[in-house]
Amino acid sequence: MKKYLVICAGLCVALAFSSCKSKESAYRKAYDKAKAQDAAVTENTNYDDTPVVTPFVDTPVADNNATTNNNNYENESVRSENLTVVNGSGLKAYSVVVGSFSVKSNAENLVSRLRSQGYDAQLAYNSARDMYRVVATTFAEKGRAVQSRNQLRNTYPDAWLLYYGY
Is the pTM of this model over 0.90? Predict the structure, then answer.
């Protein structure tokens, strides 16, 4: 009886392994079908090999040094904070902040780098947030501060406007 049981189990195992074996013909059919679809897509696609020519239109560039008339800077976002000037000549109403640091020496390094680049950089401290703010430029008018911030964003992409209400 054990003999028949072992033989039946062996036949089942052999049948199971032989039925799971993938056939090369099945792969070949799938490959041929994919090739036919690819050929159909290629034949139906009409490519235009002529180059696209866009005419060059010379547009005048606005002079950044010229006085701007009726520029509306009302919608520019401004953050207001209570600061204490740690190092610098003092803040005017609108300032451009290019860095915020919790470590004073890191802030001082950025201030010295900005001063070497010709900016009148200042260091201010926000005691409520325990952060040192590095101010690159400061102005009485909001419009000039916005223009300065936009220029500084080339180098400092996270530059933002600060309103210092004294």
Answer: no
